[in-house]
Amino acid sequence: MDYYFSINNILKEWNPIGVKGIDLEHEYERYIDEIIECVKKDENLLELIEDIEGNRIGYFYSSPDARLLVVNKVLKLV
């Protein structure tokens, strides 16, 4: 399975900052390798997703439920 492609689709669906158009395809790619590594190491993926949104993007745009949904979708892949 192509985890990179699948995780990118999950992140695009989540799209916490509401990117539109062609830019959405690449907006969240920078986080995929780190997400994959987090899952491989059995680290706290929710903590990582919250760090990505709250600290790196700079604000919590999505709800806690939306972030948890991202985590659950990613974990279902593996």
Report on the structure:
- The chain is an all-alpha fold and 78 residues long.
- The protein has one domain.
- It is 67% helix and 0% strand.
- It has five helices and no strands.
- The radius of gyration is 12 Å and the shape is globular.
- The chain starts with a helix and ends with a helix.
- The relative contact order is 0.19.
- The mean pLDDT is 96.
Keywords for this entry:
5 helices, single chain, Apc36109-like_dom_sf, 78 residues, mainly alpha, DUF1871 family protein
In brief:
By secondary structure, the chain is mostly helical.
The number of distinct β-strands equals: 0
Global geometry? globular
The rounded distance between the terminal residues' Cα atoms is 9 Å
SSE pattern, N- to C-terminal: HHHHH
Low-pLDDT regions: none
Number of domains: 1
Q: Average pLDDT across residues?
A: 96
Q: In what range is the share of β-strand residues? A: under 5%
Would you tell me the structural class of the helices and strands? mainly alpha
Largest sheet: none
Task: Please compute the radius of gyration using only Cα atoms.
Answer: 12 Å
DSSP summary: helix tally: 5
Q: Which secondary structure elements does this structure contain, and how are they paired or packed?
A:
Elements: H1 3-14, H2 24-27, H3 32-40, H4 45-57, H5 64-77
Helix pairs in contact: 1-3, 1-5, 4-5
